[in-house]
Amino acid sequence: MAGALASAADTRVALKAVASIDRLIETDTGDLALREILVSAASVLRRHADAPLLDTVLSPVDETRPKYLH
């Protein structure tokens, strides 16, 4: 039960993050690189908001994995 509650909480956090990112995207800063990064981040969070991968995305960094996103 605790695992399900934690997963639901992670999903809520991800969806709130997407809403915040969407507001930032709507703000015209003129910085196309930043906009592209924000759109990509929102897309990833939306795609995986209710998928098990969300736990991987939000989990602490595994020391064996590279610390970059490429």
What is the secondary structure topology, with strand pairs?
Elements: H1 2-26, H2 32-47, H3 53-58
Helix pairs in contact: 1-2
Could you characterize what this model shows?
Helices cover about 65% and strands about 0% of the residues. Helix 1 runs antiparallel to helix 2. The radius of gyration is 14 Å and the shape is elongated. The chain has three helices and no strands. The protein has helices spanning about 1-25, 30-45, 55-60. The protein is mainly alpha-helical and about 70 residues long. The chain has one domain (about 1-50).
Q: Rg from C-alpha positions? A: 14 Å
Order of helices and strands: HHH
Summed up, the helix count is: 3
Instruction: Extract low-pLDDT stretches.
Output: none
Terminal CA distance: 35 Å
Number of domains: 1
Task: Please outline the major beta sheet.
Answer: none
Question: What is the assembly state of the chains in this entry?
Answer: single chain
Approximate shape = elongated
Number of strands: 0
The pLDDT mean sits at 73
Helix content: 55-70%
- Strand content range: under 5%
